[in-house]
Amino acid sequence: xxxxxxxxxxxxxxxxxxxxxxxxxxxxxxxxxxxxxxxxxxxxxxxxxxxxxxxxxxxxxxxxxxxxxxxx
Length: 72
Description:
Blueprint: H1 4-50, H2 53-71
C-alpha cells in the first residue's frame, strides 16, 4: 500500500499535470479565437474592397433613411 506522503506527492503531481493540460487547452482556444477574429476581419475587408462606390452611397442613404424613420 502507498504511504500517505507518496500518495500526497502523487496527487500533487497529477494535479500539476492536469493543470498544465488545462492551461495548454486554454492557450490553444485563445489562439484559435484570435485567428477566427482575424479571418473575419480579413473577409470583411475583402468584401468592402470589392464594393463599388455606388453601393457604398446606396448603403449610406439607406442608413440615413432608417435613422430618419427612428427619429420620426
